[in-house]
Amino acid sequence: MSRAFLFLTLAVFLCQCRGSSKESSLLTGTTSNMPVIDGELADTLPQGVSKLMSVYAECLIGYSDGYLLMANGEHILYDDGAEKDFATMLDNSDPQDMFTMPYDTITEKPPYLSDAGRSRCEQLFKAMYGHSEEEVKSNLVMVPWLGQKIPFTKVNGAADSLLVVASELERHPEYHQYMKQSSSFYWRTVRGAKRQSAHSYGIAIDINTSFSNYWLWSNPGAKETDTIRYVNRILLELVHIFEKHGFIWGGRWYHYDTMHFEFRPELL
């Protein structure tokens, strides 16, 4: 056997080993700063993980042994396996819980307890946008908004997406009355709960309250699992502009909040 043939054989063997090792590591995302989730590799991941990795690649860099691997070094359990009732899922959500309810862009009146997007894994959102008011503020930029300046996080391209929405709304003067006195960042908890509001992360915007309806305003004293009356005065054509650019609408919730739009591209 010639020396040249031996060297050629060894080179092929080493290339095969490196290729196999790379393929294995990409399944967990542990050797690259950017996850690979297309082709056959996407089939190895839970569907929700693939969605999260595709839209939050800036912050979510891999998945290994059931954990989301975050750019800040945190490891977040994707599915805790616990059985949860409606209220528990809101207050103690893991990332998998966020996909339990599909976000419906077609049905005009949300069915009973259909609240896709109200469930947020607080550990995940804090890992992406900030664990404190000061951390979140450090990532806020001012977005021109139909005569206003709206503070919004630049993380995950959220501010860029809001700017595109604003640009499209500018071409529709019939919608401008709905946008007056809009508000966004506000570090606070959800009304009547201990979990953080989406506004705390700089990913939510509330439009003109003069045209808005909230489930507790229309159903005073109602509990989370009560049957409630649905009310909406926001044009769906306006809603579709937001949804096209990664924002969910609180009017799609059974527990509706029709002024509320939130950057949640993993649900769309």
Q: In words, what does this structure look like?
A:
The protein has 268 residues and is of the alpha+beta class. It has helices at 3-28, 47-55, 86-91, 122-129, 133-137, 158-170, 176-179, 215-218, 236-244; strands at residues 60-64, 67-70, 75-77, 140-145, 148-153, 204-206, 247-249, 260-263. Strands 1-2-3 form a 3-stranded antiparallel β-sheet. The chain has a 3-stranded antiparallel β-sheet with strand order 6-8-7. The longest helix has 26 residues, at 3-28. It is globular, with a radius of gyration of 22 Å. Mean pLDDT is 87; it is low at 1-40.
Task: Pick out its properties.
alpha+beta; globular; 3-stranded antiparallel sheet; 2 domains; disordered N terminus; single chain; 268 residues; Muramoyl-pentapeptide Carboxypeptidase, domain 2
Oligomer: single chain
CATH A-level architecture of the largest domain: 2-Layer Sandwich
The percentage of residues in β strands lies in 5-15%
How many separate structural domains? 2
Morphology call: globular
> Could you tell me how far the N terminus lies from the C terminus, measured between alpha carbons in angstroms?
60 Å
Q: What is the share of helical residues? A: 25-40%
CATH topology of the largest domain: Muramoyl-pentapeptide Carboxypeptidase, domain 2
- Which residue ranges are poorly predicted, with pLDDT under 50 across at least 5 consecutive positions? 1-40
In DSSP terms (H or I, runs of 4 or more residues), the helix count works out at 9
User: Can you tell me the CATH class of the largest domain?
Assistant: Alpha Beta
Mean pLDDT: 87
Instruction: Give the strand order, joined by hyphens, for the main sheet.
Output: 1-2-3
Decide which structural class fits the backbone.
Answer: alpha+beta
- Order of SSEs, N→C? HHEEEHHHEEHHEHHEE
Q: Roughly how many Å is the radius of gyration? A: 22 Å
**Major sheet, described briefly?**
3 strands, antiparallel
How many strands in all?
Answer: 8
